[in-house]
Task: structure prediction
Amino acid sequence: MKNRYQELITKQAALTTLVAKLAAENRGPDEQEKQQLETIRKEVKDIEAAFAEDGRKLALAALDKGNHAQKDQITFIKKGESLEAYTKQFVPEEQQELNLGKIIKGYLTGNWRGAELERKAAGEGSTGAGGVFIPELVSARVIDLARNVARVFQAGAQTIPMENATLRVPRLTQDATGGWYSENQDILSADGTFDGVTFTAHKLAVILAIDNELLEDAPSAAATLEMSIAKAAALALDLAALKGTGVAPQPAGLLNQADVYVHGSVGAVTDYSEIASQAAVVRGYNFEPNAFLWNAKTQSTFRKLQDTLHQPLRQPVTVPDTDFVTNQLANGEMYIGQWDQLAMGLRAGLQIETSREASYMDSTQSPAQLTSAFSRDQTIFRLRIRCDWQALHGHAFAISTGITVS
Result:
């Protein structure tokens, strides 16, 4: 495509040069020049036809990709879209209605009545150490719960499934520009500038130890367990997305990513000008901030602002009207941005492993001690996610720190 474009420019330039020569000499073309003009015009027409054919092939290829799922393509799962729906494309139809509650109940009680498919899936996913892996599609449902709970996803962060430990995603760093030209004036090339961001999988793990009596007797144990796992994952994902150090094994959060503007030591606030100024920073790079994040105390500090008549201070229209509270942020911190420009690269989805025989480090004891789930009559659930966070464009975000809270 690029070679054809260069060839077209060359042919059109030759045509323009010959026409300009005839105009300057105030004469018509001779026989040789007529033949030359005709040849160039035909070549330009052929190249343009080839362009059209290329476009048709690309359109058909895009339609084909839309009808046949390809795991090796870069897929953006946006706010309101489901990882489960994406995963369904790649699992057998019989596994698409698997139920986490049935798997847990069958595993704990040995009663798989009415759960034959779950038993088959659990058997195929045996760890060989008294445990079992939860199938991919069931795990996707749980991570959808986590995405629904995590504030960065609520604000609009996207998810990109990764088929390898690393994934490079291209991005446009400078838009192509147009201009106005006189008749016969050469049109200058003004291509957009591209680079890319690289996602590298980091491991996030959470262990939950739950008494077997609770799991066996509580009618809503599976739903409660799903939400517990989802909340634990959501908190860890929020913290990494916002403030991850970028020092192994942590991914880099927005606070430590390139091009993200940070205004530190803000101090006391008497109005909404800090938020308005940070929104203006983002807009200055042609992004539109849609939400901001802060913790409960920082939110309260702004919400308590009053005018001279002691009425609540109105928020200016230049400030996004959507905010999310996360206590993963410290007092006096605020993150504002166009949140679809933040993405989580997700490698191999969410993996949940459960066992009644393994041991775990009990962090409730000081120091943490190795504890046997079998001796305590517990079931261990281990959540494992391999993922990374990247700002697709760092200029889409601005951070304030050191706001005095009251």
About this structure: Residues 59-69 have pLDDT under 50 and may be disordered. The chain has two domains: 1-68, 72-406. Residues 361 and 370 are 4 Å apart (CA to CA).
